[in-house]
Specification:
Blueprint lengths: L1 H25 L16 H27 L4 H26 L5 H21 L3 H4 L6
Length: 138
């Protein structure tokens, strides 16, 4: 479990550093947002985002059931999570780019999406969950 937590911490540090670098390169001013806040651009974005969130929860519940009771692969669950995560972040980036007062924020959202997608993709591709959760290899 320690390797997983360390990997997550390193991932968040990389995301933070990339955002700082992109802010400097593209001259994106830092906006004050609350921690874990919903940053909806308009009412359409709020509606689309909530449809994706509720749909994601339903899909997660179905796949958690399949994972636990029908012995589905953890990599399949991670793949589904990757698809839903990229969908949600892409919608966020689109609405920031198209309808926001600060369209350059979409660059930061897209970079965060790309880094997290690459990280989850690497975990799936190289089957790293066994290594990260210290599970015995069977």
């Amino acid at each position: 479990m320690g390797k997983l937590l360390l990997s997550i911490a390193v991932l968040f540090i990389v995301i933070f550093l990339v955002k700082v670098l992109l802010r400097k390169i593209f001259h994106i001013e830092k906006r004050k947002k609350e921690f874990f806040s919903y940053s909806h651009v308009n009412s359409l974005h709020r509606k689309v985002d909530w449809v994706i969130r509720i749909g994601s929860m339903i899909v997660y519940l179905i796949f958690f059931y399949k994972l636990i009771y029908e012995d589905y692969s953890l990599n399949l669950m991670l793949g589904i999570m990757l698809i839903l995560f990229v969908l949600q972040m892409a919608v966020q980036a689109f609405f920031e780019w198209r309808y926001s007062e600060h369209p350059k924020e979409a660059i930061l959202t897209a970079s965060e999406m790309a880094i997290l997608a690459l990280a989850i993709g690497a975990v799936i591709w190289f089957d790293l969950m066994k290594f990260l959760i210290d599970a015995p290899v069977s």
